[in-house]
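Can anyone check this?
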Amino acid sequence: MGTGWTLDAKEVPIIGSDAVRWIDLSVPSSANIAVGSGATPLAPPTTDNRASCSAIGDPPTYLIWRIHKDHSQSLELLEVSASKEFPRFGLRFTFPDALCPFAFICKNENSGSSRFPYLLYVLTVSGLAYLLRIRNVCAYASCSIIPVDELFEFDVRGYVSNNAAITAVTATAGVLVIGTSDGSVCCFQLGVLDPSAPGFLHELRDEAGISRLWGLISGGKMVASAQDLVICELHEKKFLFVLHLDGTLRIWDLASHARVFTHNMGVMTMAGANFQRLWVGQSYPELSRIPLAILYGHSPDENLGMISLHGILYNVGDRIIFSMEPSVQNLSLEEGRCLDVKLMSNKIWILKDDELVSHLLSTDIYEAEAFSLALQEEFVAEQLFQNSEHLVDEILRITHSIFSSSKEDILSFVSSIFLRRLLLPGVHLNAALYATLVEYNRHLAESELQTLTADGLKKEILSLIEHEVASEKVSILHCWKCFFTRYFHNWCKNNALYGLLFDSSSGAVGLIRKNSVSLFRSLEDIERIVEGSSDEVNELTGLADLFDDDIEYEILIDLLRCVIGFSQQLGKTASSIFYESLLTASVISSEDIVHCIMKILETGYCISGPVLQTSTSGDNIIVLEKELADHKSLRKLSVDMFLSLQGLFRKASEWGKVLNVIEGFLKFLVPQKIMHKFDTEISSNINSSIIVHTAYQIAKVMFETAWDFLLFLSYLVEISGQIHLSPDDITKIQLELVPMLQETIFEWLVIIFFAITPATPAVTEDFNSKLSSLQIGKLYAVTCHSCKFTYIQMGLSL
């Protein structure tokens, strides 16, 4: 996340998008010009992973395509609709040669469109252009080779000048456009006219006279290589935007093949820069403006790139007249490669290989306000204990301090924590788990892995860990740490960022990854409090509405900072133990867990060597050194907390006022309950998947925040004599606030349970037996009947 950037949104993975099975289709060719034989490529090869999406129809169907740089002969295609489940099957077309990093898919407006609803345009590096008529996915179930009458193949080599290479390619319905290293641009009426028919080819050039295709020299001004091409529709006319290497931007009318605008961007940005990519946003008629983003770099370090933001103004009359907006905004990419960009009139999203940021644009300021969008990598790293090497050790130490069970029972409990986190929605990724199992020489087919139930996966992973402990003679904790480290590496590798999914009509933004698809949602206030910077808390109007005066609001701000700081010491680790104890057959109560945590805060870890020293020499944990370090850290926490509480007391003048503020905030944590009865089954689709997973993300934050306050209030009672809590204050905490928090925690736990439990057509008795395993975020009545039940609904800002 960028330093000082406001956290604005969070990634929500679409459940099931990592479990697509591919129908492999081979695309035949009549030409024998594969580059793999050693021939020089005519067009740019795919050196980066590439993906994009086309929205077709209303409501839209999203056609998502991906080209992997390691398998550049293949293109994957998914047909996604928000009102349906994520597709279980996709199409994978394999071509005779490697593909350029480009594909275009559109609705088929020609005859026979009901049988072939889509058209797909691609170009191979050897210069073969393909137009495929695409059937519905189900029609390919028994097909392995695309019939020749369902594709059109065209060799563009004969239409490119000698010694010139193809440097850019784009397409629109009925037209394929290529740009070359000598600056020329050629438009082919692919699928509309026969190659021998007049008008099949039009070369867009500044020079008048006969084209160089006839071998003659024309006297016009030479232009630099065509770097990027984008087609934009404006008032039912299509225009081609061409960015050249020297920063020259040309706009062509595709109907008349006339140049309608020229401008050199180098004058407004950086002279001598290498201009690389161009993105054109949707036109905004009310502003008569088209937003543009241009990526450029300055040798020798092209990684330190810049994106310049421009506006093309237009007037509509007998013809459309374009002009360049005088203002320009430059955004530095700092480190990292730019993978994709999406534009609106007042906002830009920039996807790099390690982050996604958005900028709110304004012509009144020189610098655009930046926002960070939290990627799934952050959540996965947290769940797999990758943020700190000490978290895993803390879990074992705290668990042993809390439970009086045998060593085997404690280690089994710890393993259940690891397993549950590994199989959480968004953390569990089929491709990552398969790659990790392969590294451990577990030869389980990927298709077999996908068919395993959650219990089957747990057994498979546990047997692997136990085998590793026995064969390597190391501790089970060490094995889990190594497994999580490997798994996280494979998760990042097998779910790398490819491109942005964007719907300009709604402003929805998502990610196309290597093995999954996701969307972004706005953050709730509670998430901005817990996960954002402390300065952001002051700007949360939702919190200000809870209180009558400014003093109470200021008390809350200080209180939140105090509680968040307090939870950093043991809160996160302890909450995972508390959470697991409620979901397993543990006999310890929440009150006992809180009491044990208070003892740890007071005296340090109460541990004994044998439980930790579960391995041979070389892998032992040095207990004494760790205890001393923890004791020092806890002493510092005690001093810091005492000073913070003193400041809080001075501001409020009495603890009763602080407790009233806490009570008001706790109402903010209580789930909103709306009773529903459903006479028909609720359909399962992408929208419901996003809502369910969003509910889990928010419920997790609510659960942990309520837990933090429970620990905090218990701590106040524990040190009541030092901070002068009155008997009435203690009574209010113990008899009013703590029960309220316990109630809230248990409610959020039920929501979490529903959100992470797979939706299966299980009988009511099976579902009730799972629910009864909760050791109680006293349970609240949940009416279950043939999977129809009353549920707790939250207001979500999706």
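Reply from J.R.: I decoded it. The longest strand covers residues 301-316.
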